[in-house]
Specification:
The complex is a heterodimer of chains A (345) and B (338). With 345 residues, chain A is mostly beta strands. Helix content of chain A is 4%, strand content 53%. Chain A contains 2 helices and 30 strands. Chain A has a 6-stranded antiparallel β-sheet, with no helix packed on it. Chain A is globular. Chain B folds into 2 domains: 197 residues, P-loop containing nucleotide triphosphate hydrolases (Rossmann fold, 3-Layer(aba) Sandwich); 111 residues, 2-Layer Sandwich (Hypothetical Protein Yjia, Chain: A,domain 2), CATH 3.30.1220.10. Chain B contains 9 helices and 15 strands. In chain B, strand 5 and strand 6 form a beta hairpin. The longest helix of chain B has 15 residues. Classes of the chains: A mainly beta (345), B alpha/beta (338). Strand 19 of chain A pairs parallel with strand 1 of chain B.
């Protein structure tokens, strides 16, 4: 095991909470993304706050209502709100309105290099470099998830009935449909881009192998899966939605077909609501309905470590700074823990 | 197709009792009945409450309210495609977004389009766990046009369903109708739906606190059904008419027998039973039990002890089609404890 991880295991919850800072924002934390040495968090009061170790967070009044979606874009964040605005925000408080959709919500955002994407209703809007007018992609029902592959050549759009994967060729987007009955939410490409996976409105996740559209149904959860994250080199797709972090192996030709997942980070009677990979390690942070967070290796024989104790409000976001030094945990009551992951010595 | 295998867990229900649920009012009604008038009142009146209003292509200009949410009435099937799992997908998404707001909402109002079947909206509150945890269906309010309702009931089964599903009916535009015609319309509504509260209005001028925040779905009102309407009325003309049947028993019921009968009834006949409600006196139980159903879905819970000095009688009401062929009376009688 990695020496740093060992060091981390020596610490306990009081340690991480003791050396960290706790902020009570008073509005649910909805999204968090890492921009260099800062972590930007969107809240239910429309603010985006930039957190950095050793200083007070910088508050940007961005949206009127809820920050529904957020992603990083160079050293900015892109946000979508229930005030119909799609914004580009810098940590010094500079707000650029990319588009205003009026009373329609901006449900999802995505970015790749200098391409900015958002969805409102059934339409996806794509702004490419130096172009004022967006390209639009239409769908048969409301868009519920957006994800680029790692090269930015394909854009997965989840919706009712499946996923549309748009491929960029000579500045033109062409659609390919992946169908599975039901409503599909958050979507992700596997790191090797061989699979796409969605979290459904039912208690299951669904995947497709991209080249032959083979289906992968991953079921048995007691609640909806609100969060997933890719962990390690295997890689594992680790999901929330159960009393453990459920880790599906995506190695080999067949991925998780016919295989059982590994389960780690048991939360007892609490359900996992948010999962986040620890970059570079085969380990995952799992947040639960009571606000507690466990760090676990993807190894059923290892004991997880308590990172944050119960706050009584479900964990809604976790982010790790890009140098793996800081962790930020946010919950539905707006309590934020920002702490150094590693003991000083 | 290949599967990743089934993952199972020992999961205990989360205790949600401490989480406050935002009440949701569903507003239905035929085109031109006066729904927009009512929505305008909710949005503009100084009622001192914070209401979010979910609308479909609301054309009204000049209403500056960031709590008006545009929805696309997206009705779709969940799970295996059974009718009871037909829900409003957009509603699940919008309600979960609204629950992330920093400010607390006093109520949420969901407008449905004129020809909409109210079932998917109501079912959303049963089928989706996140929605059920954070919001509760407060009442289905139907705005009916006193002038045109009778003909609409003949021509459109949606109109009949909107009356059948309602907890509250605003009988609007009564100023345009003769008194004896109002009585006729009133009786026609009663025949379909004996438990809805009927409020006669001009320009939907009922006090908002009689429309929003009623706790009507909490079933207390089952107790208040006017006795006249507890007599079953069988003189409807077509088999596909929506009618209601209700039964009363002063003999305590057997819980096991009732669960067997009622569960089986909803499973097999739930498509034709639009609404069911009841308050039950089980043998050996100190508490009242209440239930309410929408098609095949049902909620039941104890509701505290019986009021002192009041008759412990069980009452059930069914609203639906083809009720005569379900042996309801016989089924209910068989549930009486020996």
């Amino acid at each position: 095991m990695n020496a740093d991880l060992e060091k981390l295991q020596e610490t306990n919850k009081t340690e991480l909470e003791r050396r960290g800072s706790i902020f009570n924002i008073g509005a649910p934390a909805t999204e968090a993304v890492t921009i260099r040495d800062q972590i930007a968090v969107g809240f239910g009061d429309g603010t985006v706050r930039f957190f950095q170790s050793g200083s007070d967070p910088k508050t940007v009044k961005a949206h009127k209502g809820v920050v529904l979606s957020m992603t990083n874009y160079d050293d900015h964040v892109l946000t979508g709100g229930d005030d119909g605005r799609f914004l580009k925000i810098s940590s010094d408080g500079n707000i650029e309105e990319i588009f205003n959709f009026g009373s329609k919500w901006v449900d999802c955002v995505a970015s790749h290099k200098d391409t900015k994407v958002c969805s409102s209703g059934k339409t996806v809007y794509i702004w490419t470099k130096n172009k004022d007018k967006p390209q639009t992609l239409e769908h048969q029902s409301t868009v519920a998830g957006l994800a680029f592959d790692n090269k930015g050549k394909r854009l997965a759009v989840s919706r009712y009935g499946g996923v549309t994967v748009w491929k960029l060729n000579n500045n033109k987007w062409t659609a390919s449909n992946y169908t599975w009955k039901g409503s599909h939410g958050t979507v992700t490409f596997s790191p090797d881009t061989k699979y796409i996976v969605t979290a459904m409105q039912e208690n299951q996740i669904h995947g497709w192998r991209i080249n032959d559209k083979a289906d992968l149904a991953m079921r048995g959860y007691p609640s909806k899966i609100k969060s997933f994250t890719w962990v390690g080199d295997t890689p594992y797709l680790v999901t929330s939605g159960s009393s453990d972090a459920v880790c599906w192996p995506f190695d080999g030709k067949e991925g998780p077909m016919g295989r059982k997942p590994i389960v780690v980070a048991n939360g007892g009677k609490e359900l996992a609501t948010f999962v986040k990979a620890l970059n570079g390690e085969k380990a995952v942070f799992t947040g639960f309905t009571d606000g507690s967070v466990l760090l676990a290796e993807i190894d059923e024989s290892k004991k997880p470590i308590m990172i944050r104790s119960s706050t009584g409000a479900e964990v809604s976001t976790i982010a790790i700074s890009s140098d793996n030094s800081q962790i930020l945990i946010g919950d539905m009551k707006g309590s934020i823990l920002l702490s150094s992951l590693w003991a000083d010595n | 197709m290949y599967e990743g295998g089934i993952y199972r867990t020992n999961y205990k229900e989360i205790d949600m009792e401490n989480t406050s649920q935002v009440p949701v009012t569903v507003l239905t009604g035929f085109l031109g009945a006066g729904k927009t008038t009512l929505l305008n009142r909710i949005l503009t009146e100084q009622h001192g409450r914070k209401y979010a209003v979910i609308v479909n292509e609301f054309g009204e200009q000049g209403i500056d309210n960031d709590l008006v949410v545009d929805a696309d009435e997206e009705v779709f099937e969940m799970n295996n495609g059974c009718i009871c799992c037909t829900v409003r997908g957009d509603l699940i998404r919008i309600l979960s977004g609204l629950m992330k707001r920093a400010d607390k909402l006093d109520a949420i109002i969901v407008e449905t389009t004129g020809l909409a079947d109210p079932a998917p909206v109501a079912q959303t509150f049963f089928v989706d766990q996140d929605v059920a945890d954070r919001t509760k269906l407060d009442a289905i309010v139907t705005v009916a046009d006193a002038v045109h309702l009778s003909s609409q009931l003949v021509d459109h089964h949606e109109a009949e369903e909107q009356i059948a599903f309602a907890d509250v009916i605003l009988l609007n535009k009564v100023e345009l109708v003769e008194d004896n015609d109002i009585v006729k319309v009133n009786d026609r509504i009663r025949k379909i739906n004996p438990f809805a509260k009927i409020i006669k209005t001009t320009r939907c001028d009922a006090p908002l606190d009689e429309i929003v925040g009623l706790n009507a779905f909490s079933l207390d009102r089952v107790l208040d059904i006017e006795p006249d309407f507890l007599e079953s009325d069988h003189d409807h003309e077509h088999d596909d008419d929506v009618t209601s049947l209700s039964f009363v028993s002063d003999t305590p019921l057997d819980m096991d027998k009732f669960q067997d009968w009622f569960g089986n009834l909803l499973r097999t006949k739930g498509q034709d039973i639009l609404r069911s409600k009841g308050i039950l006196n089980f043998k050996g139980e100190e508490e009242r039990y209440v239930f309410q159903g929408v098609h095949m879905l049902m909620d039941a819970s104890p509701m505290g002890p019986w009021p002192k000095g009041k008759n412990r009688s069980s009452r059930v009401v069914f609203i639906g089609r083809d009720l005569d062929n379900m042996n309801l009376k016989e089924g209910f009688e068989n549930c009486k404890s020996a």
